[in-house]
């Protein structure tokens, strides 16, 4: 590990702007090293770009689907959100989640090969119409 990645010693006196810049550089180096250890995102079949997946936060992995579902339920549950449309939104979120959860490993995971899903099924998923824009669930 290079010497410039180590924190400054307490005895070193550095002017304030230089201290701040040094901390930014150190943080950047640490982040770069951490990113190097991450697994690359695998090639997907494109399902995560469909409207229903966008409602769910474009999950690629199962744990992302579950986490995003929980966040959406907290945000749109009628007890937490008194708006008129909250009931409809929570029903749609739950319906999408139940369908994805039931068949995630067999036909809905974005990691399943496109040849197994079929081009026509992908096109059908992309052309689905929803009563609200997918991004409006996350704003």
Describe the structure.
- This protein is mainly α.
- It folds into 2 domains: 3-37; 47-137, Orthogonal Bundle (Helix Hairpins).
- It contains 6 helices and no strands.
- It has helices at residues 16-37, 51-55, 62-76, 86-108, 114-117, 119-126.
- Helix 3 packs antiparallel against helix 4.
- The longest helix has 23 residues, at 86-108.
- The radius of gyration is 22 Å and the shape is flat.
- It starts with 15 loop residues before the first helix and ends in a 13-residue tail after the last helix.
- The model has no long low-confidence stretch (mean pLDDT 86).
Topology:
Elements (H helix, E strand, L loop, with lengths): L15 H22 L13 H5 L6 H15 L9 H23 L5 H4 L1 H8 L13
Protein name: J domain-containing protein
Organism: Crocosphaera watsonii WH 0003
InterPro entries: DnaJ_domain (IPR001623), J_dom_sf (IPR036869)
């Amino acid at each position: 590990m290079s010497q410039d990645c180590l924190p400054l010693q307490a005895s070193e006196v550095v002017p304030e702007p230089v201290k701040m810049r040094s901390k930014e550089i150190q943080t950047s180096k640490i982040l770069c090293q951490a990113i190097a250890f991450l697994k690359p995102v695998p090639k997907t079949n494109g399902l995560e770009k469909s409207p229903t997946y966008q409602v769910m936060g474009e999950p690629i992995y199962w744990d992302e689907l579950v986490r995003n579902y929980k966040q959406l339920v907290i945000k749109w549950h009628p007890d937490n959100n008194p708006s008129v449309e909250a009931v409809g939104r929570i029903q749609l979120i739950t319906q999408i989640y139940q369908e994805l959860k039931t068949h995630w490993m067999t036909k809905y995971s974005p990691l399943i090969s496109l040849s197994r899903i079929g081009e026509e099924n992908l096109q059908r998923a992309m052309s689905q119409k929803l009563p609200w824009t997918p991004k409006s669930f996350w704003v």
